[in-house]
Structures are given as structure tokens and as C-alpha cells.
Specification:
Bound molecules: copper (II) ion
Number of strands: 5
CATH superfamily of one domain: Copper binding periplasmic protein CusF
Helix content: 10-25%
Structural class: mainly beta
CATH class of one domain: Mainly Beta
CATH architecture of one domain: Beta Barrel
CATH topology of one domain: OB fold (Dihydrolipoamide Acetyltransferase, E2P)
Number of helices: 1
Strand content: 25-35%
Strand order of the largest sheet: 1-2-3-5-4
Radius of gyration: 17 Å
Shape: globular
Largest sheet: 5 strands, mixed, barrel
Distance between the termini: 53 Å
Length: 124
């Protein structure tokens, strides 16, 4: 392997973010600002982007608070493994037809420091 290529590989491996080995349920607390691994780049991304749809199951609906508890699959854009957690909901009207046990697909993003359901659709 040429020396320059080895150097490039070394630099690349240094530049790559480490896997989310320390991902815990800490972000489920009421203080979302306490995330030590927050990446500065996250705030630079455009709010208008296509987000991946993730499968989930409704665990709790709180229309009054505008929150939705979901047992969700991995969320690639948030670097989040599957788990059950509370989301804010961008538009409370999204909660209207939902009930516990419903299966759905949703997209989520971190808005104003809170994990937020941006869009969702029921699945059979
Ligand atoms: Cu989570």
C-alpha cells in the first residue's frame, strides 16, 4: 500500500465519528440539552430535507401535551437505535386518529432540542 494511501486511511479513520456505543436513554429525560455527544453539524442542516420513514408502534398518546410515546426502530438520521421513547409532535392534529397499539411509519428530527415526530402515516 502506498504511503500516501495509508496516511489517507489513517486520517479518514480519525475523522469518522465513533459508533454510538454510549447511546443511552438519557435523552429521554426532560432535559434534552444534556446530550454530551451533540454534533455541531446538526444545527447546520437544512430543515427542509427528506427524512427516512421508520416503523413504530404507539405506546402512549398525550394530545394535551402534544407528545407521542413510540416503540420505534432505528432512526438513521438521528443515529438512534431501536427503543421506546417520548416524542414531541410537530402538529398535534397528527395525534388525532392514533391509539395505543397502532402501527405506523414516521419521520423524526431534532427540532429546538427536542426529538419531534415530523410526519407519520398509519400502516396496516
Ligand atoms: Cu430514542
Amino acid at each position: 500500500m502506498p504511503k500516501t494511501l495509508i496516511l489517507a486511511c489513517a486520517l479518514l479513520s480519525l475523522a469518522l465519528p465513533s459508533p454510538a456505543q454510549t447511546h443511552s436513554h438519557d435523552h429521554h429525560s426532560a432535559t434534552p440539552t444534556a446530550t454530551p455527544t451533540a454534533t455541531p453539524a446538526a444545527t447546520a442542516t437544512s430543515p427542509v430535507k427528506s427524512l427516512p420513514m421508520v416503523n413504530a408502534e404507539v405506546r402512549r398518546v398525550d394530545a394535551g401535551a402534544g407528545t407521542l410515546t413510540l416503540k420505534h426502530g432505528a432512526i438513521p438520521n438521528l443515529d438512534m437505535p431501536p427503543m421506546t421513547m417520548v416524542f414531541q409532535v410537530r402538529d398535534p392534529s397528527l395525534l388525532g386518529p392514533l391509539k395505543v397499539g397502532d402501527k405506523l411509519r414516521f419521520s423524526a428530527d431534532k427540532l429546538n432540542g427536542a426529538y419531534t415526530v415530523v410526519d407519520l402515516e398509519a400502516t396496516p
